[in-house]
Amino acid sequence: MLIWPAIQLGVFSAQDYGIRQETGTAATTWVGLHNFSAILADPEFWLSLRNTTAFAAVVVALTLVAGTLVGLLLNRLGPKMAAFVSGAALVAWATPAVTATVIFYWLFDPEGGVADWLLSRLPHWLAGSGWAGFSWVNSALPAYTVLTLIVVWQGFPFIAVTVLAGLKTVPAELLESARVDGAGPWRLFWRVTFPLLRPIFLLLSLLSVIWDFGVFTQTYLLVGGNRDEFNLSVYAWYKAFQFPPFIGLGSALALVLTVILLIVTIGWVRANVREGATA
Description:
Layout: H1 3-13, E1 15-16, H2 19-23, E2 29-30, H3 34-40, H4 43-76, H5 79-94, H6 97-107, H7 114-120, H8 124-127, H9 140-167, H10 172-180, H11 185-196, H12 198-213, H13 217-223, H14 232-241, H15 247-278
Antiparallel strand pairs: 1-2
Helix pairs in contact: 1-15, 3-15, 4-9, 4-12, 5-9, 6-9, 6-13, 9-12, 9-13, 12-15, 14-15
């Protein structure tokens, strides 16, 4: 289920493969690296890469911070309240991506959405003006603002529960000793808790980068066909399944996205291993 599709992507990426080749009305033509050179020469690719990189950087940071704060809060609650709050948060994590996107689309709908209604009633010095009937999907910054809220809302519960599980493994005697030595909450977290949970945060960071770099469902439903707002996943889908479909170019884009994620992952792991070795 993984190896064979990956091999097919590699084969298609080196071919001029489209609907005619799929139906057998035209012969398959090997084009070598032509699909990759066409991608690198396309301005839409670089725009999609910029959108994807900026979005992933913001969302990964916000998701990790929000999830860590909620995990620390859950660790201070009693067993019953912690179970209730974590269960309620996991509802957001378990909500299907399509459902979550539709809910947020309704919230930010220019015709009757609660977001425009609330912003239009805030003081002018606080929120500015022009929010009544404001469309959130016609330009990149507002669209990715809504997309950020969706992904963070769905992603922070997993981070919170994982951090909570890690916090339960920190020896209470070690924390108590640090408090006796005069460490406050901030120093307690960075000097004691974070070093012990570094492997967990490394894993969560990697997973968040992989998930947020390839967000497709929410982006596709929210931005639709606005090509200025494409990320790499939607851009690859558009190139592969536009009319007429160009599966060879889409396969090359999928491989490019995979290589980018591998480079980011390897670089992140090497940096953290080097930091851990010199700490």
